Amino acid sequence: MRVLVFNAGSSSLKFGVFDLPSTALGDAQERVRGTLDRFGPEGCDLKLLGQARRRAEPRDLAEATALVPALLAKAGLDGFDAVAHRIAHGGDRFERATVLDDLTLKQIRALTPLAPLHNPANLAAVKMAQQLWPDLPQWGVFDTAFHLTNPARATTYAVPEAWRKAGLRRYGFHGTSHKYVAQRAADALQTPLRDLRLVSLHLGNGASACAIAGGQSVDSSMGLTPLEGLVMGTRSGDVDPGLFGFLHRQMGLSAPEVEDALYRDSGLLALAGVSDMREVEARAATGDHAAQLAINLYAYRARKYVGAYAAAMGGLDALVFTGGIGENSASMRRRICDGLEFLGLKLDDDRNTTVDLRGRAAPQIQAYGARVNVLVTQTAEQLMIAQEVAEAMRAARPMPIRRLPVAVSARHVHLDRAAVDALFGPGYELTPARPLRQKGHWAAAERVTLEGPKGRLEHVAILGPLRPHTQVEVSRTDSFALGLDAPVRQSGDISGTPRIRLHGTVGAYDTTGLIVAARHIHMSSEDARNWGVSNGDMVDVCLDQTARGLTFTHVLVRVSDKATTEMHIDTDEANAAGIVGAVEGEIMGDVAITRRHG
Ligand SMILES: Nc1ncnc2c1ncn2[C@@H]1O[C@H](COP(=O)(O)OP(=O)(O)O)[C@@H](O)[C@H]1O
Ligand SMILES: CC(=O)OP(=O)(O)O
Ligand SMILES: [Mg+2]
């Protein structure tokens, strides 16, 4: 499934093309990543992944959006299945990826006054895409969706009931980004999200802090609109609402005039004369006091939110930096973290200044032994948007029925050359007696005896062809009979396995390689494709046709072009399930979910 993604921000247009597995969440392949920013009368910067930044003609977001089709054509990218759009404000109506039809677009348009820098740009991209690709579904993914889990105490303003009834409440934005970096941090820390209290700082042109406890957003610094909270490029962030009356009385400004200035003429631009943090930092470095104050204020506000959210969550396990400033400005990260030592948060200067984010890395930059982890990671809004849309498109389709034969592997051995020589005589060739279902595999006419400290098992099958290493596969019950502690392993994983003695017609052979084979599925590439399963997945298989019906979890899938689809279990497992004769099993549920928990 190929998804084209538009992410129109307040100062940039980002776009991406992703190829996603069509039947389950797998690894998305990013075909192109483009950013157009730093718009001005002379054009903008254009950055395509893998290419140097260069100048381009678009002077604003609308012109940038119009240039995207030509950039895609030049990259040879077409054949999209859907176009996905970041929509900043979705109110409380849009909880997940949603098809943008006349009705939903009308609802989004109605929210435009609450995100005047964003929703119009988002909608312009939708309109252009509708004209260019009239037959493709257009999807929206909403910044606000992730924060819909915020509790009432975080979303409610203490204002008259009539206002609240009219829809005045806190929403929060950048949700797609906060959700992504939280997951990314959990992965990097190898800790389940449910066990983490995180603060995510998305510091781009727009900036917000998000408190994430147990994987859910519990508070966000942005409110009814993307004006509240942190200092931003051209937005004020928190102000005293008393300023409306003050400015009206003192300067005769109307509410819309004040609001417009808070969106467009405030923030870094108001304090330092420029809205782009790179330029603010450059000015500050030359001794410009206004720029220095801007940086100080920016860091101070962010630091206060980190402290507030640590208090809101009753503690903090990790702080995550993302967005253009969070990803790139080591000095801003330093300033924000300075003074948070009382929380157990301390940066390592060397780590902080040598952050390398290539390949979607999420380096940790806290000092050794610090209680709070600090991470930096690139946000991946486009990737998240593509994945959410692909998931929604998949959910809209019926799930394929995934039934497969279940074969019971009785105890057997795979021999190497040295074993055959020792057991049956030098140069001896085994006699293929019976073909197995997997192409090229057979059971030999010859048999061996297994001997352990406690007992022997006779007439044990030999499966060909020869292997580079001898491997002896028994059930757990067999291993008790032998008096050996055979570990449960996938075939081929025989390091450190116990020694066992084999007897053949001419001699004995001592070897390591005794295992209880972990249950697994051999799967043809075609079935894997149709079923949305990938090599290495762990799935659940339900055996519902047997008297003792059983669901096996942790079943490893091994995909190969040569494989015939078939699940292999051992005799203990077969007995537990009450298998008599040929049976089938069914791969259960959403493989993607099984995989995440696998
Ligand atoms: N190397 C850098 N040092 C400091 N700030 C940077 C650097 N690179 C980008 N930024 C800042 O990141 C901000 C843009 O962030 P980005 O996330 O791309 O914006 P948007 O909110 O439009 O998505 C700008 O303020 C820019 O100056
Ligand atoms: C909501 C918001 O502020 O978005 P951006 O950072 O893209 O401007
Ligand atoms: Mg952004």
From TrEMBL:
Q: What is the enzyme's class at the highest EC level?
A: transferase
GO MF annotations in UniProt: acetate kinase activity
Binding sites annotated in the UniProt record for Mg(2+): 7, 381
- What does the record's cofactor remark say about binding? Mg(2+). Can also accept Mn(2+).
Q: So what EC number does this one have?
A: 2.7.2.1
Compartment list: Cytoplasm
The active site of this protein is located at: 143 (proton donor/acceptor)
Chemical reaction(s) catalysed: acetate + ATP = acetyl phosphate + ADP
Taxonomy, superkingdom = Bacteria
Sorted keywords for this record are: ATP-binding, Cytoplasm, Kinase, Magnesium, Metal-binding, Nucleotide-binding, Transferase
Major location, coarse class?
A: cytoplasm
Site (described: Transition state stabilizer) = 174, 235
Matches recorded under InterPro entries: Ac/propionate_kinase, Aliphatic_acid_kin_short-chain, Aliphatic_acid_kinase_CS, ATPase_NBD, PTAC
Q: Which residues bind ATP?
A: 14, 202-206, 276-278, 324-328
Give me the residues that bind substrate, please: 86
Q: Name one Pfam family in it.
A: PTAC
Pathway assigned in UniProt? Metabolic intermediate biosynthesis; acetyl-CoA biosynthesis; acetyl-CoA from acetate: step 1/2
Family affiliation: Belongs to the acetokinase family.
Q: Note the HAMAP family from the entry.
A: Acetate_kinase
Q: How does it assemble?
A: Homodimer.
Free-text function comment from the UniProt entry? Catalyzes the formation of acetyl phosphate from acetate and ATP. Can also catalyze the reverse reaction.
What protein name applies here?
Acetate kinase
Originating organism: Roseinatronobacter domitianus
Corresponding gene? ackA
